[in-house]
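Hello,

Following up on my earlier ticket. Below are the two sequence lines again, exactly as submitted.
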Amino acid sequence: MNLPPDTHPWPAAWRRLTARTPAAAGLALLAALLGALVLAAALLGDATRDPLPRALDAARISLSFAFLAGLLGAGIGLAWGLLAAALGGTAGRRLVETARGLAALPLVLAVPLAGGLSGHDKAMLLPAAALAAAPAVALATQAALRGLMRAEFLTAARASGATGREVLLHHLLPNAALPLLAAGWSALPRALAAEGFSGALGLGLPGGRAGLGTAIGAAVARGDAAGLLAPALLLGLTLWALGAVGDGLRAEADR
Amino acid sequence: MPIPALFLFVLLATAGAALAEGDPWAPALRVAAQLPASAALATAALAAGAWTGARLGARPVGTSPLSAAAGLLAGAGPALPAFLVAAVLAALTGATAGWTAWLAAWASLALPAAAQATRIAREALTERLDAPESFGAMARGLPAEAVLSGRTRPAAVGAVARALGSAGAAMAAGTAAAEGLFGLPGAGGLFVEAARAGEAGLALTALAGLAGLALLIDAAAAGLARPDGARR
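Thanks for your patience. The regenerated structure is below:
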């Protein structure tokens, strides 16, 4: 099907997303932060002792951690939600109820626990952060798919004689992509917050060149309010930007 | 998973963690003795935050300083997780004991709760104001203030009350951060202390206690929200 360029779903969704002021500001902030991280790594190297470049270095480590843990958490959550929607019935309901029950627990505490018991081992912190984010992603995925399965356009496509494969490839998947992206995106701020949370308590990524949370925890331990400023500001702004983009994606998915 | 099943899970986890220790009851007793302090801190902060947020968010969007403060608070919410506010206040005040530390810990939990409540109340208010019933009421000659006070504000406050039913996990995690950073007594402080020392049994018992606290907050808040839903 050849649509006019301005009616293709992805460019149209992008235009609507960037028309939302908070989402556009969030995207601009994330782009600026990523640019600053690349520039700081290229121009300043590792030798600097200034607070801002050190905070940018910590932000790079935190964002890498959040990206990996978020990706893993989103993958687990999406698979969980898709399985619940595909199974349906009692088995699907049980999977959803399990996700709902786990999401009601303070799972983020598993991250500092893993950090403390493993001696700040990244190999333990990363899956803990991913698993803490997964149930919420699973719930959002299942809710989005449940809404889509009842959509009138699917009934219309089936009534018009489309095969199951055609319905899946041409109708369900293109329309499910944005809601699934919105559901998966929520794992990113959760993983970043989990790193910040455990690091601030001194139970996060190992010391030396560590993440924003560890830098915050070290500044608190020293009683160094000035040293806290840059990492706290960077973490707060990044969380805000990720949240604003996530809100925009959810609003677009709910349209 | 229903709340009773989760309670059972938490109780079993506590018992398992206690049995893993040499002295099976010592960690459980320590956590049980510290849990009321955490519960008091979390519920006091949640109540204050939700009340302030509902009041601020249920105000009509305008140019008054209070409305601007509400907009700022609602917008900044995602940038203000409890652990970050607690870290900033801990570094600024240097408080590690006494009333200053309790007050700072309370504020670091109440501020994110207020931001979240303001945002929820604002969204509910806008949604209800845009609804056909509100336009219909105004078209029938009902003053805008009467529509606000009679129809939209109760909806905003009701939305905050319902959202409290899922605030338990965030409050329990925030309490652990606040108690850990301010060195306060409580199950959260015990959890952080045990995790730092690598004491698995005590840390798991404290974690189970905090999970129970989260479920209790959710159940209590859901109970409070139900009469509002029934009235409407």
